[in-house]
């Protein structure tokens, strides 16, 4: 079944390129994939240890290289996110003026690549699937983007290629530093090496992984590709990349760096905190200064990575669970924000705050959808984002706690909490400028989202609400993954 | 404790309004009247349930789990049923019911009626959540949710710029308060390991062992209360919130939500009262807010803004009482204030709508005959507000004055002067708005409001009259008992009342314009201007600098060369397009070979 989930989008993309009916195939495949994923999610047994739905095809047995897929709570959550956002992104793709087939195929390749990376149990394919997903992202921006799309496409290409290169170096070093007897590409077997990697090596490798993965996640100061790429990308591409593919880096940190390199994580936690505060406070301020909705959303997505990093930096059960939950929640909310922004761009031809206004009058449903997503993004209780953020804050604040004075983590938490005010400032300003106030006269003829788009919007909002009201459900699925990491003396 | 009978009633109170909000949003947005009926039915259910709960001595509700991470962090949704929450349930559902009914009339022809009632129901859900919360995180959840519904309702007429700005301002100011609130919660949780009130209580010794820590935590929690209850210096959003529909002003921005700060401090009194320093700050903030708002109210011309500043001022009284360690006095005033302030707002709403959305009191006048019911009920509310015996406000305000007299003479002096000012601005409002000759076209032709609006007015007028009597109030809460030695206090209060009311009466009788003009008060002490300057000087400037750095240095310097070369190569990309994929895949394959070589064959 898992093999089918991974292959469906890729097969569908190939079929579309070969001449199958474009939209029907894409939508059919992604909905089928979502249904399968939901089935896997419901059938998943969180109380069982290890990976489930495992399938494995040996490729080079003498090197322990195999094409293996499997899910645990963390990867299952990511695959579910990918499946939901894929359906929404495909659904929101309307008529494409040029190379329609290639456009849909690219979307499906991103989705297949991301899901493959999350589901891979083998380091090699983990890396390879992600690269597979990056290429169509570049193409989507370079060919179908808006604004200075070629420059944006090159920027993201070079940036992410460099990031991937650093990451590759890190992974190679990691492999080399595994005890010889335990060397493997097989991720579940890696945990046998926990505690066996020399501290020096841990520090070096962690730094490489942090920079490599960090570039992919737009960790400050390696972020500047992100806003430009998202502003330029067609909405479905931005939805998939910001919503899903970007989570690959975080997934990698949680899957590899945190459990295997605890000493490295501890050593660099000070640096990580400075960088993530760069994401939250500095990028937060940059976001406030934005004058266009797409750039604002791009920067806000960079900013919110800071909270996920804060959970990772806490390196305890509560923090990592919070980070994973936030990855899921952020993916859904940012996808919906980009989707609605894309629809507005289609209708008005601009996302400039100065030129927009009162759209809630002409596009009430779009206003409602954007409102839901915006308030989810700024952590309003009731949405999954809030439950996740609160776990992150509580875990971070508790790190190195002493009643008599605040240490690094406490100060970082205070500043990160102030970020919640900052994000409310830019989001509400944007909402006020775009949807409230008097409608612009020449925008009176704008029509609302067509009725069929209510379904993907409802799906995204409903998921955010369900896991906002019942976060325990997600926590129970994710927790076992991390509980394995922190069973040793590391509990907070 | 264990004898308490488990009941589903409290859950009905929480779920009925939530269901109403969900049904309206999902299904009945197009049927405006049906949406209104659903909302009114839901609030009716909550009122009945509240009464039933009130009648039962021992009742509890099984908690639900919201979030529990391996026992480290436990945040349940648990409901507290005690005399405090029972009283508050009655106030919220009772006043809420009347205001829902009134809204049917007030919002009759509004395009966004369905949205209005959905938000109103959601507000009731959130407010009941605050009242029933048994732990900090649940309290915070609903705390933010009422802020959200308040945002939606203030911005109800979102095409008006003033409403859009006011909504944003309200939410952001509350977020600043909540920033402190959350920090306080974090401190208490980290120190005691729990967020549930009943579990923190036995661990208070951990907190009291470090007085500075406790004071900071208590003040941070107060920060949240100050945001929601619009206390100085976070008071600026409440007057602007009057851009929302008037029933919203009555329900949310006078009777219930803004009182949530007082309620919350009473709920966590065991923490606050452990820190004398924090109490002192709270008492002074309350007194300053009361005085400042009353001063501003004397020079406002918008009927709703006068009432808004009056709300600030009365909330200030309540905070003073909290700070002087008398929850009873604070809650007593909360109780009476909920009725008479809701009454005053609804009365103002009736005037406003019958005068075709005229809010300037100088364009009114001569309304005593044209709007007799409105006038009569408004007068009852006014008497209660200025504390004319035997109206309810007299008793509750007197309790606070007596308290101040006993504890802190300078705060007492401020509170007494505030009472003079209260009598002054209320008399000014009544005399200018209702007496004399009509000064505007709409005032000349006004007619009395429909019965769906006047009936709640009459109900609230009755309540405003009797709510202060001990025999009535003591059914609902502990009425602070008067000490005989301080008979001086009610005498002084009466003198203050007479002084303020008579001055205003002679000054404003038959006036066409305001004989007094104090710019400092008309401009509300320039606080808004100061904050505007502060935001421009700090946040906006920092944001611009950060954006500049990001654009020119991080982006331009580091990636500048890359971008430039990209432009050259860009044309190339256009030719190869998909062909590029193969090249990339080839390079990628090379990379893979490299890994395998290094990793395995080395």
Walkthrough of the structure:
The complex is a heterodimer of chains A (492) and B (602). Chain A is built from 21 helices and two strands. Chain A is mainly alpha-helical. Chain A has a domain at 270-492. A two-stranded antiparallel ribbon of chain A has the order 1-2. In chain A, helix 3 runs antiparallel to helix 10 and helix 6 (149-177) crosses helix 9 (225-232). Chain A is globular. In chain A, 66% of the residues are buried. Chain B contains 26 helices and four strands. In chain B, helix 4 (113-132) runs antiparallel to helix 5 and helix 5 runs antiparallel to helix 6. Chain B has helices at residues 9-26, 32-55, 83-106, 113-132, 136-154, 161-192, 197-200, 204-208, 211-228, 237-240, 246-255, 260-267, 269-272, 276-297, 303-323, 327-354, 372-386, 392-407, 409-434, 441-444, 451-466, 470-473, 488-508, 519-522, 527-576, 579-601, and strands at residues 5-6, 59-60, 64-69, 73-77. By secondary structure, chain B is mostly helical. In chain B, 73% of the residues lie in helices and 2% in strands. The N and C termini of chain B lie far apart (72 Å). A two-stranded parallel ribbon of chain B has the order 1-2. In chain B, strands 3-4 form a two-stranded antiparallel ribbon. The interface between A and B is large, with 80 and 74 residues.
Q: How do the strands line up in the largest sheet of chain A? A: 1-2
Count of helix runs of chain B: 26
Quote the beta fraction of chain B: under 5%
How far the N terminus sits from the C terminus of chain A, by CA atoms, comes to: 38 Å
Multimeric status of the protein: heterodimer
- Counting H and I runs of at least 4 residues, what is the number of helices of chain A? 21
Low-confidence stretches of chain B: 568-582
Helix coverage percent of chain B: over 70%
* Low-pLDDT sequence parts of chain A: 488-492
General shape of chain A: globular
**How many DSSP-defined strands of chain A?**
2
